[in-house]
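Regression test case RT-17, inverse folding.

Input:
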C-alpha cells in the first residue's frame, strides 16, 4: 500500500466531517479480510486525494466531560498557488461560538437630541459602520434587525493588514498569509423615532433613513431594507466588482430551499443549510454562533434561507437575531461568519432563586451522591415562555423539599453537560436516582403536569 501521510503541510478538517462534500462519494474497497486500519487506509488512498486520519482518545473522570475516541480527518495541503477546486473549500473548518449578547460597553449608542426627543444622532467610525449603527439601534430601541455583509471583490475597498500580524517573523518575506478587511470609514446620520409610539411603521421609517444616508455617503456597498414578521432585514443590493464598477450584490441567504415539514434540530439543520449554500459559491462558513439546542417544526414549501431563518428564530426564540459578516481574506482563512445576537433581557436566574445551578464540578456531590431523587432541568434564556416555566420549577422545588431536589443546567454555559446526556431540545427535564437517569420530560408543561410526572417517576 502507498503511504497515507507525507511531510507536506496539512490542514485539519475536524471531527467526523466529510472532507469531500455534502454527499458521500461512491468508494471502492479492496477484497479479502482486512484490519480496520488497513481498510481505512485502502479506502482513503484509493478514493481521495491526500486524506489521512488520526484517532485520539478522550479519557476523563470529570462529570459532564465527554469521553471516547475521535477520528479526525486531515487533508494534505498542496504546495501550489493554482486555484483550488470548490470541493476543497469546506465548511468543516467552522468555528462554533456562543451567541453574543449586545451590551452598552461594546456598542455605539445613538444619542437622543435634548432639544428634540424624537431626533437621534449616529456617529460611528469602523470597518462596518452601518453594522455598528444597526447594533446600537437594535439595543437602544429593543427591535430585531439582521445585517448581511456583501461579498467584497474590489481591492480598493479593502485594507491589507498582513504586516500587522504578531507572528509575522516566522514567515519568509512576502509569504505571510494575507489578512484583508474592509476599509475604516466614518458614518454620521440622524433619524426620527418617537419612542413613545415605536410602531412597526415608525421603526421601518427610521431604519430607512439610516440606510439612505449610508447609501448617499462614502461607502463600499449599498443596502436596502426588507421587513418580516417582527424582524427587519438589511440586505446588500450593490457592491463593486474587480474593476471598481458597481454591480448587483448576491447573498447566500437568497438561496431557495425546499422544506417538507417535520421536526429537526435547529442548529444542525441551519448549520448544514448554510454550509451547503457556501459550498455552492466556493466559500466556507468559518464561524457559526451556537444557540441552545432546540427541536423545531419546519414549515412546508419553498423559502429563501433568510425567510426560513427568520421564521424559525422568531417562532422559537426570544430577542434573537443574526449578523452575517464576510471575511475577504483569501483561502483558507476567509469566508462567512454567521453570528447570532441576543438582545439583553432579564437574566433567567432572577426567576429561579431557589434552584441550584449545576456544572461539571458539583455534579457528583449534588446529583450522583444525592440521597433523594434529583430533577435536572436543562434550560437557558432565549426560548419563548422559558421564564414562566423556570418560575414554576422554582415553586415546585420549595414544595417538594425532602422528597425531590430540583436543579438546573444552563445549556449555553454548560454545553458539555447537556451533550453528555444527549439533550437536544430545551427545556428537557431528567429525573436521576443515584446518578442514573430514570425518566425524561420534554417541552414546557403546566405545573399540574410537572407534579404528575414527578409523582409517577417516584412510584
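Golden output:
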Amino acid at each position: 500500500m502507498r503511504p497515507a501521510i507525507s511531510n507536506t503541510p496539512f490542514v485539519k478538517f475536524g471531527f467526523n466531517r466529510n472532507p469531500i462534500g455534502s454527499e458521500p462519494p461512491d468508494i471502492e474497497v479492496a477484497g479479502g479480510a482486512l484490519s480496520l486500519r488497513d481498510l481505512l487506509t485502502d479506502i482513503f488512498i484509493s478514493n481521495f486525494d491526500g486524506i489521512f486520519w488520526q484517532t485520539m482518545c478522550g479519557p476523563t473522570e470529570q462529570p459532564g466531560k465527554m469521553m471516547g475516541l475521535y477520528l479526525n480527518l486531515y487533508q494534505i495541503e498542496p504546495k501550489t498557488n493554482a486555484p483550488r477546486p470548490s470541493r476543497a473549500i469546506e465548511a468543516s473548518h467552522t468555528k462554533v461560538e456562543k451567541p453574543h449578547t449586545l451590551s452598552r460597553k461594546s456598542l455605539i449608542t445613538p444619542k437622543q437630541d435634548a432639544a428634540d426627543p424624537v431626533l437621534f444622532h449616529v456617529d460611528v467610525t469602523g470597518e462596518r459602520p452601518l453594522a455598528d449603527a444597526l447594533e446600537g439601534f437594535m439595543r437602544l430601541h429593543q427591535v430585531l434587525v439582521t445585517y448581511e455583509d456583501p461579498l467584497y471583490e474590489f481591492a480598493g475597498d479593502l485594507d491589507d493588514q498582513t504586516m500587522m500580524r504578531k507572528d509575522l517573523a516566522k514567515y519568509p518575506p512576502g509569504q505571510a498569509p494575507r489578512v484583508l478587511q474592509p476599509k475604516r470609514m466614518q458614518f454620521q446620520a440622524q433619524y426620527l423615532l418617537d419612542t413613545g409610539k415605536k410602531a412597526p411603521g415608525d421603526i421601518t421609517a427610521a431604519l430607512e433613513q439610516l440606510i439612505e444616508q449610508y447609501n448617499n455617503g462614502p461607502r463600499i456597498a449599498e443596502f436596502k431594507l426588507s421587513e418580516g414578521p417582527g424582524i427587519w432585514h438589511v440586505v446588500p443590493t450593490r457592491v463593486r466588482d474587480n474593476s471598481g464598477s458597481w454591480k448587483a450584490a448576491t447573498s447566500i441567504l437568497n438561496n431557495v430551499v425546499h422544506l417538507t415539514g417535520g421536526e429537526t434540530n435547529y442548529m444542525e439543520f441551519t448549520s448544514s443549510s448554510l454550509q451547503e449554500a457556501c459550498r455552492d459559491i466556493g466559500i466556507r462558513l468559518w464561524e457559526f454562533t451556537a444557540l441552545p439546542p432546540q427541536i423545531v417544526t419546519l414549515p412546508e414549501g419553498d423559502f429563501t434561507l433568510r425567510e426560513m431563518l427568520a421564521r424559525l428564530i422568531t417562532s422559537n426564540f426570544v430577542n434573537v437575531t443574526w449578523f452575517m459578516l464576510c471575511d475577504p481574506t483569501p483561502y483558507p482563512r476567509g469566508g462567512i461568519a454567521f453570528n447570532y445576537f441576543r438582545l439583553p433581557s432579564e437574566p433567567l436566574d432572577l426567576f429561579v432563586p431557589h434552584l441550584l445551578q449545576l456544572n461539571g464540578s458539583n455534579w457528583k456531590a449534588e446529583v450522583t451522591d444525592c440521597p433523594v431523587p434529583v430533577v435536572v432541568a436543562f434550560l437557558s434564556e432565549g426560548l419563548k415562555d422559558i421564564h414562566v416555566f423556570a418560575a414554576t420549577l422554582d415553586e415546585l422545588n420549595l414544595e417538594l423539599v425532602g422528597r425531590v431536589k430540583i436543579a438546573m443546567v444552563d445549556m449555553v454555559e454548560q454545553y458539555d453537560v447537556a451533550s453528555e446526556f444527549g439533550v437536544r431540545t430545551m427545556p428537557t427535564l431528567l429525573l436521576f436516582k443515584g446518578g442514573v437517569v430514570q425518566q425524561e420530560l420534554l417541552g414546557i408543561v403546566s405545573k399540574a403536569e410537572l407534579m404528575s410526572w414527578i409523582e409517577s417517576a417516584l412510584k
